[in-house]
From TrEMBL:
Its cofactor is Mg(2+). Residues 4-248 form the Endonuclease/exonuclease/phosphatase domain. Keywords: Hydrolase, Magnesium, Metal-binding. This is Exodeoxyribonuclease III. It comes from Novosphingobium mangrovi. The keyword Methyltransferase does not apply. The keyword Metal-binding applies. It is an enzyme of class 3 (hydrolase). GO terms for molecular function: double-stranded DNA 3'-5' DNA exonuclease activity. NCBIfam families: exoDNase_III, xth. Its EC number is 3.1.11.2. InterPro entries: AP_endonuc_1, Endo/exonu/phosph_ase_sf, Endo/exonuclease/phosphatase, ExoIII-like. It comes from the Bacteria. Belongs to the DNA repair enzymes AP/ExoA family.
Length: 258
């Protein structure tokens, strides 16, 4: 079974590329981020034509997450994170599908540093950790995947000095990410690529894509019950080079049956 994540950077603007990717790679589950669509505008009918069913948590012009499943309706468990009732950002959605707990996230960027947006990022990561601890306590096979907006290691970027002052590389951001790993979650891409050099994002500016000036911020974290089933993982890098593509490439994990 393949479970994938794709920050699509506008589901309507990138719909042809998204449908193309789904048809070519056929993940059993696809988590989407930055759909940038209100709930009523989400183009679910286009996905249904390919055999996908889905749930989504939208927001006008910003954020937004979704979970699509091939031939099966995801059973929603939770949308949004507890802890800040006033937080109206659509950044988290969680469902059960194919016997797996799937959480799709779009973690706050946090720039500029210092400032209220960075403070919000760190609070959001603490709330995420709390929810992931609850999932771990259920001892279910689970994956938390999406755009984490954290570059965990220097080996996860083409040039560490280029982003040294960015929220994605601050010690506090990395520490919050490492705490998730310390709680028992497995970073699939890092585990299979210990030397690094795997990018999932290339900025539209400064010729980042043709120069391969990218970094890794899209991750797939597996619970112990699911990490034992990991067969392979990767990045569909070629899709970043297509016309009118997202600035992210899809990431995926391949799992053996239970």
């Amino acid at each position: 079974m393949k479970i994938a994540s794709f920050n699509i950077n506008g589901v309507k603007a990138r719909l042809p590329r998204l449908l193309e990717w789904l048809a070519e790679t056929r993940p059993a589950v696809a988590c989407l981020q930055e759909i940038k669509s209100q709930d009523e505008g989400f183009p679910v009918a286009e996905f249904e034509k390919l055999g996908y069913k889905g749930i989504w948590h939208g927001q006008k012009s910003f954020n937004g997450v979704a979970i699509l499943a091939d031939g099966e309706m995801p059973v929603e468990v939770q949308r949004g994170l507890e802890g800040e009732p006033e937080d109206d950002h659509s950044r988290y959605i969680e469902a059960d599908v194919f016997g797996i707990r799937v959480a799709g996230i779009y973690l706050p960027n946090g720039n500029p540093v210092p400032g209220p947006k960075f403070d919000y990022k760190l609070r959001w990561m603490k709330r995420l950790r709390d929810r992931m601890a609850q999932i771990r306590a259920e001892e279910v096979p689970a994956i938390v995947t999406g755009d984490f907006n954290v570059i965990p290691f220097d080996r996860d970027i083409w040039s560490p000095p280029a982003m040294a002052s960015d929220a994605l590389m601050q010690p506090e951001s990395r520490d919050a990410y490492f705490r998730l790993l310390g709680d028992g979650w497995t970073d699939a891409i890092a585990t299979h690529n210990p030397q690094g050099g795997v990018w999932t994002y290339w900025d539209y500016q400064a010729g980042a894509w043709p120069r391969d000036h990218g970094f890794r911020i899209d991750h797939a974290l597996l619970s112990p019950e699911l990490a034992d089933r990991l067969v392979a993982c990767g990045v569909d890098k070629a899709h970043r080079g297509r016309e009118k593509a997202s600035d992210h490439a899809p990431v995926w994990v391949e799992l053996r049956d239970a």
